[in-house]
Design goal:
A hairpin with a 3-residue loop joins strand 4 and strand 5 (about 70). The longest helix has 9 residues, at about 95-105. This protein has two helices and five strands. By secondary structure, the protein is α+β, with helices and mostly antiparallel strands. The chain is globular, with a radius of gyration of 15 Å.
Length: about 120
């Protein structure tokens, strides 16, 4: 049995950060994978997810209601900053930034997760 994913009720990170990344991650570049139509150009080298450069922020790939039920419409093709932002660190401790953001929308803090040890 796996624990529920705390991201599926939260989503606050998708409304807090500008999600910027190297332009070639977009699918209009060879080998790119992020849907280009969901991005905007920042400069010659960088793009960001539409909606994440505006105030109030909300990534164009975010679906659902923050703090209740959310999902990413491009999860398998999300950009590198989204892939690199951990809910849990390797030792199972929660990312303190997640808990700081969750507090802003009155969600309880994420508890440490203890991963089973490999045999």
């Amino acid at each position: 049995m796996t624990e529920p994913n705390p991201c599926l009720e939260c989503g606050i990170c998708c409304t807090h950060f500008r999600i910027s990344f190297y332009w070639a991650e977009a699918d209009d570049a060879p080998g790119g994978f992020v849907p280009a139509h969901m991005t905007e150009k920042l400069n010659h080298h960088m793009r960001c997810m539409k909606g994440s450069n505006d105030m109030p922020r909300r990534c164009s790939a975010l679906e659902g209601v923050i703090g209740e039920a959310v999902s990413c419409s491009i999860y398998e093709n999300r950009p590198s900053p989204c892939r690199a932002f951990p809910v849990f660190f390797e030792d199972g401790t929660p990312n303190p930034k997640c808990n700081e953001l969750r507090e802003k929308i009155n969600l309880p803090p994420i508890e440490p997760w203890f991963f089973p040890q490999a045999a």
